[in-house]
Structures are given as C-alpha cells and as structure tokens.
Amino acid sequence: MSTATHDHAHGHSQDGGHAHDDHAHDHKPYGMMRWLGSTNHKDIGTMYLWFSFSMFLVGGVMALIIRAELFQPGLQIVRPEFFNSMTTYHGLIMVFGAIMPAFVGFANWLIPMQIGAPDMAFPRMNNLSFWLLPPAAMLLIAAQFAPGGGAGVGWTMYAPLTTQAGPAMDLTIFAVHILGMSSIMGSINIITTVLNMRAPGMTLMKMPLFCWTWLITAYLLVASMPVLAGAVTMTLTDRHFGTNFFNAAGGGDPVLYQHIFWFFGHPEVYIIAIPAFGVVSQVIPAFSRKPLFGYASMVYATASIAILSFMVWAHHMYTVGMPVETQLYFMYATTLIAIPTGVKVFNWVATMWKGSLTFETPMLFALGFLFLFSLGGFTGLVLSITPVDVQIHDTYYVVAHFHYVMVAGALFSAFAGIYFWLPKWTGRMYNETLGKWHFWLSLIFFNVTFFVQHFLGLAGMPRRVPDYALQFAEFNAISTIGAFGFGISQLLFLYVVVKCITGGEKAEQKQWEGADSLEWTHLPSPAPYHSFSTPPALK
Amino acid sequence: MSTQHTATSDNYYVPGLSHWPITASVAMALLGFGAAFSMNNMTGGNLLLILGFIVLFVMFAGWFSTVAHESEGGMYNRQVGMSFRWGMSWFIFSEVMFFAAFFGALGYMRLYSVPDLGSIEHQQLLWPGFKGDWPTAGPHFKAGDFTPMGAWGIPALNTALLLTSGVTITIAHWGLLKKNRAQLIWGLAATIALGMIFLGFQIYEYSHAYSAMNLKLTSGAYGSTFFMLTGFHGFHVTVGTIMLWVILFRSVAGHFTPENHFGFEGVAWYWHFVDVVWVLLFVLVYIL
Asked: Which residue of A has its CA nearest to B59?
C-alpha cells in the first residue's frame, strides 16, 4: 500500500507513531517561523482550522449576548446600538471568520493528499491567504471600540445605513476587502491545484467528491468576491469621497447596493454549503461501506447549483419593490435549485441503502446534516415563494431557515469532517463516547434554539430587534436556553480535540474501514509532513 | 501523463519558509487601519498608511525578485509554469468580475434608477422638473451644470494608443520567441511609451474635467460612474505599466527564453485585459 508512495515515509509501518518519529528530521522547521513563514499545506490547514475555531468562539459569544438580551421582553442587558452591532459582527465573523476558513482548512489539508500532489500549487501565496485573516479579524474586533461603537448595520451592510454609520464602518469595509483578497488567492490556489497538480491517472472524474466541490466553490469565490469588493468600495466612496452610487438625490439608488451585494451574497450561501456537501459525500460512503451513489450526477448537480446561484439573487429582495414579472422570474429560478439539491440528498440516501452502516461520530454528524440541512432547504423553498416571503420577510422564520443551513448544514458537516480526519491529521483517535455526547448535545440544543424560531417568525416577530412584544416571550426564552446549551456543548468539542491530540489512542493508517481516498490508502497516520513529493502510481 | 513528469526531470518546486507572506499581511494591516483612521481624520492614520505602502512596496519587490531568481535558476519545471498560467488566468477573471460590479452599477443607473427618478410619480411627488435623461448628476445636484465628457477627442486617441500598444507587445513577444532580443526590448519600450502617453492624456482629461467642465467625482450618478470606472482602469494601466517596466528590465538583463517566459506572458495577458476593459469603457461610458 504505502510502498507505492515513494515519498519520505521510509518507515511506512502501520504504527503511526513510528512513522511520526521517522519524520522528526524530515525538513520540519521549528519555532515561530514554522507557522509565520509556512509553505506546508498541512501546517497552513491546521492554522486555518484553529483560527476558524477561535473565531467560532468569538462569534458564539456575540450570539449568546444576543440571546441573553432576548431571553425576556424589554431591554435587559445591552443598549440597542450595541445589540445591533452584535447581530452585525456575529454574522460577519461567523460567515467570513469561522465557516469559510474552516472549509479552506479542510481544502488545504485534504486536496493535495486526495489528488496525490506534493503541496498546493502556490505554497507561499497559500500562507498569505491565511495570514490575511488575522489583520481582517483585528479590524472587525477593533470596530467595536471605534468612536460611536461597532457599526449596527447588519452583516449585509445595506446602504443608506452604511453611508451614515460611524468610523467602525470603515474598519469593517477594509476587513471585508482583506477577507476578499484572502478568499480570492485561496481559491486561485485551489483551482490551480486541482486542475494542474493531480497525480498521473487521477482524472477529474476519479477525484474524491470533496475535491470537486472545492473546485466549484473556488470558482464561485473568484467570481463573486470581487463583486462584494466593488459593493463595499462604492459604500466607501459614497461615505468619504462624495460619490452618489446609493444616493437618490444624486441619481443613485440604495437598492443598487442590494442588487450588487446579493449578486455576491447568494453564491456565498453555496460557497458555504458546497464544501459541506463535499465532506458529507466522503463521510457517508465510508460508514455505509459502499461507493458514493451517482458520483457523476453529484458532480453535475453541484455544478448546476453553482451556475444557478448567480441567477437568483433578488429572491433576497422581494419586498424592496420590483415588477411582478421580475419577482416571478426570481421565484421560478430559485425553486429550480431544489432539483439539483434533491439529486444530492437522494444520492446520499441511496448510498446508505443496503449499506453496512455503522454510526461513529462523523457519521452521526453527517446524518444530522442530512436531516437538518434538508429541513433548512425546505424552509428555503417556502421562502422562495414570493407571496409567502412578502409575509415573513425579515422575520425570525428567515433567521431559523438560514441557521438550519449554516449551523446544522455547514457547521455539522465541518464537525463530521473533523472527527473523520482527526485520526489522519494527528495519528490519534478521539474519544468516541465523548464525540457522541458532543453530537447529541449539539443536535438537541440546536433544535431547541432554532426550531422555535420558525414559530416566532410565522407569528410575526421581526429579526434584528433587541425588544419584542409580550406574546413572543416563551419561545424566546426556550431559544435562549438552547443557545447557551449549544454554546457550552462546543467547549466539550474543544476538550475532545485537545484530548485527542495530546493523549488519544494511536490511530491506524486506514482508521475507517470504508474510507478509500488516497490519504487513507497511501499515507500513514499521521500523514507525513511532506507527502507525495513524487506522484503516486495510480491505476 | 507519467512521461510528462519524468521529462522535466525534477519534482514540482515547493519553496521553503518565506517571510514575504507575513510581510504582506503586516502591510495590509497597516493599510487597513491607516486608511480607516485617516479617512476619519484620526491621529496616526497617515503615518500608518505611509508605513503600509512602504512595507507593501518592499514586499512586492522582494517577493517578485525571489520568484524571478528562482525562475532564472531553473527551479520551475513545465508543470510549475502551467500553474502560473492557470493562476494568472483566474486572477484576471477576478479582475473582470470587479469591473463587472461597476459596469453593473452604471447599467442599473442608466436603465432603472435614473429613469425611475424621472417618472411621472416622482415628478409630481418628489422631484418636479427632473426628466431622468442621461447624463445626469441626479435630481438634487446643487453644484451647477456640468459638461459630460465627449468621446471623439482625447478618448478616441487613447483608444488608438491602447490598441496599438496591444500590437507592440505582440511584436515584442514574437521577438522573444525568435530570440531577437532587440525586437523584444524595443517592442516593450514602445508598449511602455504608449501606456505612459495614455496615462498622461488621462491626467490631462481629469484636470480639464475638474477645471473647465465642472465635472467631478461628486457630480452625481454620471460623475461617480465616470470617475470610478475610468479611475480604476487608469489604476490598472498604472500597475500594468509598472509590470511592463519590470519585464523590460528583466529582458535587458537577459531573462526569459522562448520556452520559459511566464513573467512576460502574464504581463502581456494583463495588458490585453486592460485593453479590453478600455474598449468597453470607450463604448459604454464615452460613446453611449
């Protein structure tokens, strides 16, 4: 098996620890520069994942401040301006700081190993993509301390609120610029790696689906991130240089901002969801001990979703005022996305059909994803219907919908992936019992938090308000209890991961019986610091 | 496939530790904070901005010279060259999308928001007398009338200049492929000259607009789109010209072979991209 690699794995024994010792001398740099100056896709992937987790905690604390304030009606804990700032930066930090970097971390760790490449195509630019994130995070956090406090404009940063906000808005705009640069460079790296670095014999249609989903995601990022940069640049020049893009008195239009933002914003939804699909498409076959059902249709479905995602943006803006014909077009185009998404869900279920199933933690999270993401998809379908959306636009129904997609979809998938690949990354196994505890606690508290928000939204509770009418009190209290439970459960996750790294049992090369991509079949656990320096021989 | 790897005799080049990425990160932090501070007239903003630009300049010079030396040292095989080409193509695509946002804003204003502001309801309720014709500075522009920029003076000349520069850089490329160094260098020099004349004309056009036509960045929808689109294009021409200078110096220093000259090709692609954007600008901003 591992003899085929011809890499530095002289030991290539099944004993992961032994292989690790062999690589102590394997060009592994020491000290600070190993991380600051890294050109190693595994180290950079690790930094991405830890950065993502720390931002997950920062954004999570902001979420808990929001939920604490909403525990009871009336203003209890924070000022309304601060509350608005929390909703804004919770969204920005979770989307750009936590979820996107988590999946870029996966891409860094896995794509080179899964396609038999020595590293990413541009190792130094790879490091720059990561190291742009801390300055952006510093800008976002510094915005909280700007004169006038954080910009309470919502993560969508709609004009004209943004053109009137205080200095925090400028810090936020530059943070978005830097995050955009990071994403674009990371994506160019991923596309080039997938297109140009595959080992001989690894054709595009033989790649693990995770690589395909990232290829398509990277395309979405390169196409949509510059548009967001354009939108915030116009906001900046409207604020400071007297342009009139979003000012009707000068012939502009605040709605123009919404069009440009959502031209980026809707693909962004799939930028988050598609890598999650990729992780789940690796995990479910492994624990079903069957190949993925309908591989080719998965690829085409993913590509269809990506193409459609650029044609549906105005379904976020049904209530802003647009011709009925336009609303109808965007409604039909949006419902069309349900078809490729349905193909995917069908394929995951069909993969499990008559499989030899086991339910370790990664599989549990993948199944949690499957159920809850589908539910989030259904509420999305409800929201795509214009007359319905006009009623529940900007209510907690929308909040519930996208948290089913973002948390139970993307985040659960990231958890599935972390539990799945931890043995390969660290050479050690996590504690299965604690992992299952983490899953069940997350699943239950997630639903306690967000399921009730559907009812709140249908009953008319608007989002982004620090106070609400009395009849919403019970469901809000339940939601807050769930949120704190969910938050505390994630500390268990941190404990499981740290315990795995420091003292877990030794993992085998092929820890999961049904896993069949190159990192499991060709590389020991932990994966050597440099893998596939010469391409592996593939059938 | 497998022969392709052995034919180039060495492995894909994976560089060792590098301090340039973290230097770039420091530059971006300085620039981000510096720009935000200075735009709000806060102390230290300008200082941070200047420091940021210095670090950025040092980083670009250092990083690119490292790459140039690695390339000339024969560390890049054909597969690495292919990576550079993919990378440059997708970078240019991202630039296309950046311009698309501003062209989209122009189209939206001309086709939707401005006509809507001049619609009959708005005339009765909000902006009596506003017709919604283009060019416009909007219904509530207080700084007096402006003259829109005509297409058939300097802009048409600039179109000819940039299109010609696309030809001269191709002549330079032929010189490189034929191992005719003189043709390469003179072709590049001509391209740079045309680019700099273009920039000179743009500067003249801007100052004329400000001093004689009352056309400013603050002149409503027309001023915003005119100056932002041509301004970002001008910035890209400036960057392209700097890149051409670097390529010229490298050509004089004997860099590039007919087989291995990604640096040249990347700059040429970028220059053609800037060219195409200008043609779009000329049609959509100046003529129509």
From this structure: A128
